[in-house]
TrEMBL record:
Signal peptide start and end residues: none
Glycosyltransferase in keyword set: yes
Record's keyword annotation contains ATP-binding: no
Name under which the protein is recorded: Glycosyltransferase
Protein origin, superkingdom: Eukaryota
Enzyme Commission (EC) number: 2.4.1.-
Pfam families for this protein: UDPGT (PF00201)
Family per similarity comment: Belongs to the UDP-glycosyltransferase family.
UniProt keyword list: Glycosyltransferase, Transferase
PROSITE patterns: UDPGT
Matches recorded under CDD domains: GT1_Gtf-like
Source organism of this protein record: Solanum tuberosum (Potato)
């Protein structure tokens, strides 16, 4: 009998594509044939990352002539501004005819996992009688809190007024923990309409795939699955299925730099804010001062032009700090022996990667689900500390002092030590979850069995 075939279709954003590469590896390991959909400009990224696998890669043209979006931009990290997200995401709808044509030409597809940001793929799945799972880059912790808070957020609560939820009385939340437009009293606008379309398609899908681990958020997985549908399946951490590093002639210079730090017995703070967060110039300046004053060794990946950094800063910190403007292998950095802390925006992939590398986090959430992820990191699973905002509010400006103190605490203080101990324990459990007999391994097997039996009925 031919092996089951699964179709994967990530949204065109690095934070959504990268975990799907690892999910493909997890599925291959379970004897599944995998086809991944992408667009021509992203194809090289796919074929490089999946080169040592037999994943079938299909590219379909990305829509052209979308107002405001430069020609050739096929991934959100290349957008001139995140304000173009909705036109970009909405434009993907016109890929539907090509997607359906390619889908129909594949051998029978057992099920498909498509990004929740591609809600129109549900219709394609239904037309061809294929069960669709929506991939959410979020935790069930965030999903449960978002859904359970929606009524309270429609009341007169002020932005930083603390409230709790009857089902989770131990978590203190504020309106500011939720991103716009969801935190508004009367949410509306193009992004809200898009999110409603996404939620509607998800509610009619077969299930939700979550890049998390049952043990990490069992209360929230159980809550979600008892109150909402469709069912959320935690089959992560995907990154623990990552391919071993390939042989290479030369190491990137930042790895050589980290090697040097390790040889001198020095600990390094890794600083990176993902692919989407937009930092103001004022905020950028405070980071430089905070890093300089903290006196720790650091590797900072910036998405801004070097000119904004190059005011003598690099020269002043040259013996202990490295600023990198290129795309880096974040996992290799996090797993480097010298890296002992991560100043992170708490994008969910970064959190999972830090957990698997057993590196404690200094949380500085900026947008999307990041504030809720930061609550999970600091208050729920206690694997990190938080930067301090000037006025103590959730979204306040962070002055250099609000960075300097917690950076030192994370790298050298008792609270950092506790967080490091906790991340070691949780990291070990997370890595074990996808091994034979682990919770995610079992959940994925159950899912495959349910779907293959269903198809054979
Ligand atoms: O130079 C770089 C920069 C990033 N990465 C990788 O890119 C991914 C980034 O993902 P994430 O940390 O989640 O950040 P964002 O790209 O900003 O994530 C978006 O998507 C996430 C998943 O849905 C959300 O949790 C975030 O809030 C949202 O901003 C990670 O795998 C990183 O390892 C690299 O390997 N090299």
């Amino acid at each position: 009998m031919a092996s089951p075939r699964v179709v994967l279709f990530p949204f065109m954003s690095k934070g959504h594509i990268i975990p799907i590469f690892d999910l493909a590896r997890l599925l291959l390991r379970s004897g599944i044939s995998v086809t991944v959909f992408t667009t021509p400009a992203s194809r090289p990224f796919f074929s490089d990352s999946l080169s040592n696998t037999n994943v079938n890669i299909v590219d379909i043209p990305f829509p052209q002539n979308i107002e405001g979006i430069p020609v050739g931009v096929e991934s959100t990290d290349k957008l001139p501004s995140m304000s173009l997200f909705v036109p970009f995401a909405s434009a993907t709808k016109s890929m539907k005819p090509n997607f359906e044509q390619a889908l129909a030409s594949l051998s029978p597809v057992t099920f498909m996992i498509t990004d929740s940001f591609l809600p129109w793929t549900l219709d394609s799945a239904n037309k061809l009688g294929i069960p669709r799972f929506a991939y959410y880059g979020m935790t069930t912790f965030s999903l449960s809190l978002m859904r359970s808070s929606s009524d309270l957020l429609r009341t007169e609560l002020s932005d930083d007024e603390v409230f709790t939820l009857p089902d989770f009385p131990w978590i203190k939340l504020t309106r500011n923990d939720f991103d716009s437009p969801f935190r508004e009293r009367e949410p509306k606008g193009p992004f809200f309409d898009f999110a409603m379309e996404e939620a509607m398609a998800t509610s009619k899908s077969y299930g939700l795939i979550v890049n998390s681990i049952y043990e990490l958020e069992s209360v929230y997985v159980d809550h979600f699955n008892s109150k909402f549908s469709p069912k959320a399946w935690c089959v992560g951490p995907f990154c623990a299925a990552t391919a071993p590093l390939q042989q290479r002639l030369e190491k990137p210079s930042y790895i050589n730099w980290l090697d040097g730090m390790l040889e001198q017995g020095k600990q390094v703070l890794y600083v990176a804010f993902g692919t989407q967060a937009e930092l103001s110039s004022e905020q950028f300046k405070e980071i430089k001062i905070g890093l300089e004053k903290s006196e720790v060794n650091f590797l900072w990946v910036v998405r801004k032009s070097i000119d904004e950094v190059d005011d003598g800063f690099e020269n002043r910190v040259k013996n202990r700090g490295l600023v990198v403007t290129e795309w880096v292998d974040q996992r290799e950095i996090l797993n480097h022996g010298s890296v002992q802390g991560f100043l992170s925006h708490c994008g969910w992939n970064s959190v999972v990667e830090s957990i698997c590398a057993k590196v404690p986090i200094l949380a500085w959430p900026m947008m999307a689900d990041q504030h809720l992820n930061a609550r999970m990191v600091v208050e729920e699973i206690k694997i990190g500390l938080k930067v301090e905002t000037r006025d103590g509010s959730v979204r306040g400006f962070v002055k250099c002092e609000g960075l300097e103190k917690p950076i030192r605490e994370l790298m050298e203080g008792d609270k950092g030590k506790e967080a490091r101990k906790k991340v070691n324990e949780i990291g070990e459990a997370a890595i074990n979850a996808i091994k034979e007999g682990g919770s995610s391994w079992q959940t994925l097997n159950d899912l495959i069995l349910e779907l293959t039996t269903r198809r054979n009925v």
